[in-house]
Amino acid sequence: TQPEENSNAHSPRKSVTEFSVEWRGVSIDTFSVEYWHQNQGAISPSDVSQVILTWWKHVENAKVFSTPYLYAAMGASDYNAQLHLPETLDAFSLSQRYLYPDPFRGVIARYTHPEFEEAILDIAVYPMLSALTQASDVSVKAELKKAVDTANEVAKTRAMEVTMQQLFTPVESAFLPNAGVMAEMFAESETGESLFASIYVFQIEDKFVKFSTTFPARISDPLVQAAFPQLQVPPESALMKEIRRALK
Fold first, then answer.
1. 107 neighbors 100 (Cβ within 8 angstroms)
2. Is the pTM of this model over 0.85?
3. pLDDT for 112-125, tens place per residue?
């Protein structure tokens, strides 16, 4: 806050307060508040409250702390308008779609089964954080390995022994220019608790598209294939173009 001088000591004085909201060091919103102070320019707690309240009204009106605002301010992909997903996949239906409050994590959509509560299929779509010069098969294998490592860690925390039934198995589709890869896992605890996990990773445009299911691949495979004709991802965003230019 910077008070401005006035030639008359008994007249109100004006201060200008600038608020800045940043995400990872990048400014996504700035807002200035001009305020005239009474009492010979002395700043009272009431004055401070009014200044902050004026800024907060701007924040609420502009939805500065909302996820869509962050994506737009950063020049990230518009997943709400440009990501098209199937509403149903066989008996599974889209039950939830969540936009992460981080443009580098993108969106995840959950599909559930009307009869089997534990049967879940997730589709995650998020940008590749690398230059697009790397071969697609190398990128998707590296991303699949991350997902498998995470699944292994989860199984360990539950004292479950993991058996890899498939790893880096190629998956092709007539609707995709490049093949993806998949992994199939089975985990079991000493108490008899068992879990299946099938994970698929593909590159579409500059995005990773990851399918994760809680059932065997023989059930997952046709569902994944059925998704592609109805799946459309956003084009490369201004944010990722700038990042990739810096990586060259």
1. yes
2. yes
3. 999 999 999 999 99
